[in-house]
Design goal:
The complex is a heterodimer of chains A (297) and B (308).
Chain A lengths: L2 H4 L13 H10 L4 H27 L15 H9 L2 H32 L5 H11 L8 H10 L6 H25 L3 H9 L4 H30 L2 H6 L8 H10 L5 H32 L5
Chain B lengths: L1 H15 L6 H28 L1 E2 L9 E2 L3 H9 L1 H32 L6 H9 L6 H12 L5 H7 L13 H28 L4 H9 L4 H30 L2 H6 L11 H10 L4 H25 L8
Helix pairs in contact in B: 2-13, 4-8, 4-10, 6-8, 8-10, 12-13
Classes of the chains: A mainly alpha (297), B mainly alpha (308).
Chain lengths: 297, 308
């Protein structure tokens, strides 16, 4: 793994030997030999991909087969989880929760992030601090009081309890990121629009929002992926079969006495597909998004 | 010109009907209200419950208990100390391994080579996978009769019927590896983001001066990454401490309670034991421990300080 770090060629330059140009380039880039990249990377890729392959293998392989290649392919495990184990309902519920939390998070974080980025006011720093501190709060430990609150609000066993809880726990980071993105847009652009007679809101919608698109896609995707994945809130706040989400469905497959591995793997694939699609779509922005917002605060 | 502008904007401001002074507060109101209602209020109510006997199934015992819950935690709950020690072990092992592998991975992906884009996408992909799905995948892999161990045994490595998760000695490492699979990409992403902001000129200058790549790493790369590393290890440590999904579904704290973290213990006490008051007291203790450790950690690492 750390081969790339431990073995390096001393770039001690003997004075005046081969043509300067070539040596200079080799030294200035100072690149490790290829094998030091490909060997550890290959090992790590195996570690990453074998588990995924294992799941797909079990999901597509005929029951009772033990070959390491899913051939002949069967769709019966998928049919089983989808039709008999309620994954059709879970999938729709999870989508509903994921999309609603994403939209709510984006709206609330945009409005708050704009205030944090563009105004100087007395509560600004305390608010930023509160946002950072809230990152320390364990969702698991909030289960009991949140349960009580949703009982009071009569939201238990409604998807809205999960949507609200997810949104609240997504908000702090999303707001910090979005205010960072807005700060990267020069205020002069907005001011120019005001001069042209736009209201603050219109200037924001017409000038700033289009420039935020990549950042918003990244933040929105985080929110979607997190809500899609979260398990404990759904487990605690939803108790009827028709309201459950995919992670809870997977947990009940795991918990049954004789675990049907094929069905379990197929359920896992159903759970993985949407996030993998979202991920493939946003991974280009992951790195730039983080470097623009979170790391620099 | 300027006058004309002012005349045109002033009435518009008035038409919006708000003085600019209150506008930021209005914009922050939705977020503020949500966080007050669902974060601040619950924290206060946890502290309130922790001073109560509160059990849904035994209403006749409910009422003010003073510090009884806390006394019970520290004096006659042997399980509390076990879960605390396991939590510490879990966080330390997870975070340090994730940091080492994540850093190495980021350094590799930061090089230019053929197939870098594809490799990056593949290597980062487990980041998007949930705890429950991670458990699902690794339960398939660890299965004694149809998992990896069986195929390895076919090839003459190890024994048939090895059950990683059912054995207290190996369950810890089984859980650690599963969590690493999901956690390393997070570190690699954050560190890579920061690596890309290191100026190339520094390396150029260093290598003209004849510094080896190892020296360049220790004298340029690491100091530059320090704040990002401190922040991401702290965030991750808090996150791993609080991470219940994976352990709940992978081992449910077993075998024999050997993989129960404090938050998992809280969840089990609150959900299955209905002892809300006791769970709230445990929560309060966990809070204080987290906060204390975070402050000490930030002090020790001189976060945001000068490099020398």
């Amino acid at each position: 793994m750390t081969a790339a770090l431990t073995e390096s060629k001393e770039a001690s330059a003997p004075p005046a030997s081969p043509p300067v140009s070539r040596r200079r380039r080799r030294r200035s880039l100072d690149e490790p030999p290829r094998w030091q990249i490909y060997v550890p990377l290959g090992v790590y890729l195996l570690f990453t991909l074998i588990p995924f392959y294992w799941m797909v293998l079990f999901a597509l392989r005929e029951p009772g087969s033990d070959s390491l290649v899913p051939w002949p392919i069967t769709g019966e495990h998928f049919a089983k989880v989808w039709n008999e184990r309620g994954f059709d309902t879970y999938f729709i519920n999870s989508m509903y929760v994921g999309i609603a939390s994403m939209l709510m998070t984006l709206l609330v974080a945009l409005s708050g992030g704009y205030a944090l980025a563009r105004f100087k006011f007395r509560m600004r720093m305390p608010f930023m601090l509160a946002l950072l501190c809230s990152q320390f709060i364990p969702g698991a430990l909030m289960l009991v009081p949140l349960f009580e609150i949703f009982r009071e609000l009569q939201l238990l066993n409604s998807l809205w309890s999960v949507i609200l809880a997810e949104t609240v726990f997504q908000l702090p980071l999303s707001m910090i990121l979005i205010s960072g993105f807005i700060r990267n847009v020069p205020p002069s652009l907005e001011e120019a629009a005001w001069v042209d007679g736009c209201s603050r809101l219109r200037a924001f919608l017409a000038v700033v929002l289009p420039l935020l698109r990549p950042g918003l896609i990244a933040v929105g995707s985080f929110a979607f992926v997190h809500s899609w994945n979260h398990f404990l809130f759904a487990l605690m706040f939803l108790n009827s079969q028709d309201k459950q989400t995919i992670p809870v469905g997977l947990n009940s497959l795991l918990g049954s006495d004789s675990v049907d591995l094929g069905a379990l793997a197929a359920g896992g694939v159903v759970a993985a597909v949407p996030v993998v699609i979202v991920f493939a779509f946003i991974q280009r922005w992951l790195i730039t998004g983080f470097s623009a917002g979170a790391v620099k605060g | 010109m300027a006058d004309a502008v002012r005349e045109r904007t002033r009435p518009r401001r008035r038409r919006a009907g708000r003085s600019p002074r209150s506008l930021p507060y209005l914009l922050l109101a939705p977020a503020g209200l949500l966080m007050l209602g669902f974060i601040a209020y619950p924290i206060i109510s946890v502290i309130y419950y922790s001073l109560q006997n509160y059990n849904v199934t035994k209403p006749w015992r409910n009422g003010f208990a003073g510090l009884d819950n806390f006394r019970e935690i520290f004096t006659d709950d042997p399980f509390f100390w076990d879960t605390l020690i396991f939590s510490a072990r879990w966080v330390l092992v997870e975070v340090s391994l994730q940091l080492v592998f994540g850093l190495a991975l980021a350094l590799i992906i930061n090089q230019t080579f053929v197939g870098r884009g594809v490799a990056r996408a593949l290597v980062f992909s487990p980041w998007a996978v949930s705890g429950v799905l991670t458990s699902t995948i690794w339960i398939l892999l660890y299965n004694p009769s149809t998992g990896l161990s069986r195929y390895l045994a076919d090839a003459g490595i190890g024994e048939y019927g090895t059950s990683v998760l059912a054995n207290p000695g190996t369950a810890f490492w089984g859980a650690v590896i599963a969590e690493l699979w999901r956690g390393v990409p997070f570190f690699a992403i954050l560190i890579l983001a920061d690596l890309q902001s290191v100026s190339k000129d520094l390396y150029e200058a260093a290598s003209v001066d004849g510094a080896s790549r190892i020296r360049q790493f220790f004298h340029i790369t690491l100091p530059h990454l320090r704040d990002a590393i401190v922040l991401s290890t702290l965030l991750r440590a808090v996150w791993e401490f609080n991470n219940v999904d994976l352990l709940y579904t992978l081992t449910n704290g077993g075998p024999a309670g050997s993989t129960t973290t404090l938050p998992l213990y809280v969840a089990q006490t609150g959900i299955h034991g209905n002892e809300f008051g006791y769970a709230a007291a445990l929560t309060t203790v966990a809070f204080v421990i987290l906060l204390f450790c975070s402050i000490v950690y930030l002090r020790l690492s001189k976060f945001g300080g000068d490099d020398k």
